Amino acid sequence: MQPQPHRIQALQLTLRGQSSTSAESWRGQLRDWIDNDASNCLAAVCDAWCPPDEVRQIKSLTLSVRIDDLSKLAEAVQTELWRQLDNAVDLSGSVVGEASTDLEFAATRRSVEANDQQMLLHYLRQGVLPWPMAMQQRERVLEPFQQLLRRQRGAILASLQIGGWSSWLAVLRRMLQLTTKPEQPEVLALLLVRAELAPPSSWLQIAEQSGQLPTFHRFWIATWLASDSLARYLQSLTMQLTLSAETSKSIPTLLPLFCTLVERHDAKTIEKVSAQVKSLLPDIELPVLLLAESGVARSVEPDQTEPVVEETSEQSRGVSMFHAGTVLLHPYLPTLFAACGICQKGDKRIVPEQLPRAAQLLHYLASGETQAQDFDTPFYALLLGVYPRAISLPEASLAAQDCAEADALLQAVLSHWTALKQTRVESLQLSFLQRRGVLIDDAQGLTLHIHKEAFDVLLTHLPWSINMVKLSWMPKPLLVVW
C-alpha cells in the first residue's frame, strides 16, 4: 500500500501589517499564495518530517513568521514549521519541550497499514468516512481500501463486530462495492459464516444485492449449513439460491415458495417446495433438513432501525462531502427527475423506492460513473432532502434513458453558462461538480462550505444563484458558501 500523503484539515491565516493600507495591499497577494502555493509549501516539510511507514497526528499548530517581502514567505513558513516539528517530537514520537513552543497536539505513531485498517473498519460499520480520510480526494480513499481488502480480507472481517441484520446487509453492500466481480464470491462466503439467523423479510434483500454472483459451491461451508431447524433450513436454502447465477431470473417464482414454507412447514410441503426449486434451478445443492428436529421456525424480528449518517466527535465540526459542487445543478434537478419518472415537479418528497436511483443519477452527473460508493451518499442525501438518513445503493446500473437525460442536462448547463460554453463536460465535472465540501448543521441551519479553487472567478458568470438552495422536496433551505 502506498503511504498516505499528509492531510491538512483546515488552514487559517492572520495578517498583521504596519498599517491598514499595507495589510490590505498584501491581502490579495497572500490569497494567491494560499490558492496556488501554500499546499505544496507545507507538503514538502510534512512529507520530509514524517517517515513513510508512520502516521503522526497533530491536533493544531500555530506558526508565527515576520517578513518584509512576500517572496520570502514560503521559505520563512517552511523554516518555522520544521523548527517546531523537530523540537516538539523526538524520534520515539513523544513530546519534548512543551513550554518552548506554542504547538498544541496529541502525537501518535502507528503503521500506515494499521491506520488504514482502522479507517476501513470505521467506514464498513458506519457508512461514513472518518474525518482525516474524508478530507482527501475521492480516488485516494478508494485505492487504499481496495488494496487492503484484497490483502487482508479475512482479518478485516474477523475484526468487524456486526450487530443486527440491517447492519450485516450494509456491510455486505459496502464490501461488494469495493471489490471486483471475481473477488465478490469469497467476500460473500466469508460474511455468510458470520451471519446470524436472518429474519424472513431480509431474504429477498440478500438476493437483490448478491443475486448477480456466479455459482460457487467450493465456498459452501458444510458445518454452517447443518439444518437443525426449519428456520435454519430456510436461510440455508435462501443463501444457496442467492449464490446461483440464475436466481435473479427466478425471484418472482421463488418468492411464493418461500411464503408457502413459512406458512406451512410440514414434511409434505417441504418436499414439494424442494422439488419445485430443484426443477427451476437444477444445479442447486439443497440443504438437508432433519424433520425430527425441525419443529417450528424460530422467530427473529427484523432490525428496522433506519440507517443514519452517524456523527462522531471528529465530525462534530462538520461533515466532509464528496462531489458537493453538484449543488450547482440544483435548478435543473426537478426537470431531470420528472423526465426520469423519479418524482413530479413540486412534489414535497421523493418516495423511498426512488431515492437510490436519484442518488445514482446525481453521481452520474458529477462523475460520469453509474455506480456510487456508500461514502458518496451524504451529499446526495442532503440534496434529495433526507439527510442525515443514509441512502442504500443496491448494485443496479442506470437505464440508458436515464444517462441520456443526465447528459442532456450537462450540455444545457454548458450552453447557458457562457464562460464555459466551449468547455467539455468532463472539465465541468472535474473543475466544479466534483469539488469537496463541508456541511455545518447548527442553530443557524444547514451551511455547505465548498472548497475554493482559483478558477472560481468563473462563478460570477453563472446565470443563476447558488447562495441558497431550496428544492420542493427539501425540508429546509441549504445555504451555500462558495
Strand and helix layout:
Blueprint lengths: L19 H17 L1 H12 L5 E2 L16 H16 L20 E2 L1 H15 L4 H4 L3 H22 L5 H14 L5 H11 L8 H8 L19 H13 L4 H17 L3 H14 L10 H4 L24 E3 L11 H7 L15 H13 L9 H7 L16 H17 L8 H9 L3 E6 L2 E6 L17 E2 L8 E4 L1
Structure, described:
Helices cover 46% and strands 5% of the residues. With 482 residues, the chain is mainly alpha-helical. It has a five-stranded mixed beta sheet, with helices on one face. Strands 1-2 form a two-stranded antiparallel ribbon. β4 and β5 form a beta hairpin. It holds the Pfam family CIS_TMP.
Q: Keywords, please?
A:
482 residues, mainly alpha, 3 domains, 5-stranded mixed sheet, two-stranded antiparallel ribbon, 46% helix, globular, disordered N terminus, CIS_TMP
Summarize the structure.
InterPro entries: CIS_TMP. This protein is mostly helical and 482 residues long.
What is the number of domains? 3
Q: Largest sheet, order of strands side by side?
A: 3-4-5-7-6
Beta-strand content bin:
5-15%
The poorly predicted ranges are 1-5, 90-110, 210-229, 289-316
Query: Which shape, going by the Cα principal axes?
Result: globular
Largest sheet: 5 strands, mixed
Q: Helix count, per DSSP? A: 18
Q: Helix coverage percent of residues?
A: 40-55%
Q: N-to-C SSE series?
A: HHEHEHHHHHHHHHHEHHHHHEEEE
What Rg is obtained from the alpha carbons, in whole angstroms? 27 Å
For the terminal residues, how far apart are their CA atoms? Answer: 35 Å
Structural class: mainly alpha
* Number of DSSP strand runs: 7
- Mean pLDDT score, rounded? 72
InterPro entries: CIS_TMP (IPR045538)
Pfam families: CIS_TMP (PF19268)
